């Protein structure tokens, strides 16, 4: 699941990781990455345990 990888690398990493490094690691383009990142954030925000 790409969304999970994005969240782990971007927000759960001990070091600060830039978006470009994440989408290159995942083999994605910028245009593919940002909608997936938005979906990942929305999934977290709407999780039953959060709201």
Describe this structure in words.
The structure is a single chain. The chain has 3 helices and no strands. The protein has helices at residues 2-11, 19-25, 30-45. It has 51 residues and is mainly α.
Supply database-style keywords.
51 residues, mainly alpha, globular
- Sheet-strand content, in percent, reads under 5%
Percent helix, as a range, is: 55-70%
Which structural category do the helix and sheet elements fall into? mainly alpha
Give the low-pLDDT segments: none
Which outline best applies?
Answer: globular
Assembly context of the chains: single chain
Number of helices: 3
Q: Sketch the topology as an H/E string, one letter per element.
A: HHH
Number of strands: 0
Separation, N- and C-terminal Cα atoms: 22 Å
How can the largest sheet be summarized? none
Mean pLDDT figure: 92
